[in-house]
Specification:
The complex is a heterodimer of chains A (162) and B (92).
Chain A: E1 11-15, E2 21-27, H1 33-37, H2 47-66, E3 71-82, E4 91-101, E5 105-114, E6 117-129, H3 134-145
Antiparallel strand pairs in A: 1-2, 2-4, 3-6, 4-5, 5-6
Chain B: H1 2-15, H2 36-50, H3 56-64, H4 76-91
Helix pairs in contact in B: 1-2, 1-4
The chains are: A alpha+beta (162), B mainly alpha (92).
Chain lengths: 162, 92
């Protein structure tokens, strides 16, 4: 198994004032080891990575809401549909809208589009859990800090959440 | 009993339990086998059905902190009492 670094969001283009919706952008690379095997002679983004990009957009929104005090973890994918193939070089837009802000979890409707055309959608369920390590939280804080649109300065970890 | 029946049905359907597995005094954490994802899914269904936000995260934190009686909050009867309390708050 060859696992690449799974960084699927290039930039956050907007977060709603209510912090219940987010839009993220990324452009598929022209070349990637992923495409070497998926598929030779016809490169396409694997559907599972389309889900992952939508889930990462959803996760960014949760991190913006909780000021990086707890980690959103993918816990469920419902009603996923893949309507078009995503090809190398295409610019993708992932949007996530909060449907339910639960206690320790969140449910979000997400879409993936290219030039306005809907490529995929899914309802994503995230469990929101204490960070598994300080190193992990540090990595996420550093990652979030590169996306100024999130305006999510790290807050203190609350008692019982660390 | 309406709340109890609805909440029990949600746990039965979401968590794959049998009707006879649970009763008002059943502790939904220690008396039955429900994994955290099923528990989260059941919570979502309860939240959606009653228009509330059950504070399971706080209850779990109480258990982690060793707060006396914290695990009792997961008794089905107590969960239903909390549902009714939150319903009244939401309606106020």
């Amino acid at each position: 198994m060859i696992l690449e670094r799974v960084a699927l969001i290039d930039r956050v283009s907007s977060v709603s004032d209510e912090r219940d919706a987010i839009t993220c952008e990324a452009t598929l690379p022209l070349e990637s080891p992923v495409f070497d095997g998926h598929f030779p002679g016809f490169a396409t983004m694997p559907g599972v990575l389309m889900i992952e990009m939508m889930a990462q957009a959803a996760g960014y929104l949760i991190l913006a809401r909780n000021r990086v005090t707890a980690m959103p973890i993918l816990a469920g994918v419902d009603s996923a549909r893949f309507r078009s193939l995503a090809r190398p070089g295409q610019a993708l837009t992932a949007q996530a809208k909060l449907v339910h802000d639960g206690s320790g979890y969140a449910v979000l409707d997400t879409t993936l589009r290219h030039e306005g055309q809907r490529f995929a959608e899914a309802q994503i369920r995230l469990r929101i859990t204490p960070f598994f390590s300080e190193e992990m939280r540090g990595h996420v804080i550093a990652m979030i800090a590169t996306h100024k649109e999130l305006d999510a300065p790290a807050g203190p970890v609350l008692a019982g959440a660390a | 009993m309406a709340t109890y029946d609805d909440v029990k049905d949600i746990f039965v359907q979401i968590c794959g339990l049998e009707e006879g597995d649970i009763a008002p005094e059943t502790n939904m954490v220690s008396d039955v086998t429900i994994d955290s994802i099923d528990f989260m899914d059941a919570t979502y269904e309860i939240d959606q059905k009653f228009g509330i936000k059950l504070p399971f995260e706080a209850w779990a934190a109480d258990v982690s902190d060793g707060k006396p009686g914290a695990t009792d909050q997961f008794e089905l009867r107590r969960i239903c009492e909390e549902v009714d309390r939150l319903k009244q708050l939401a309606a106020a």
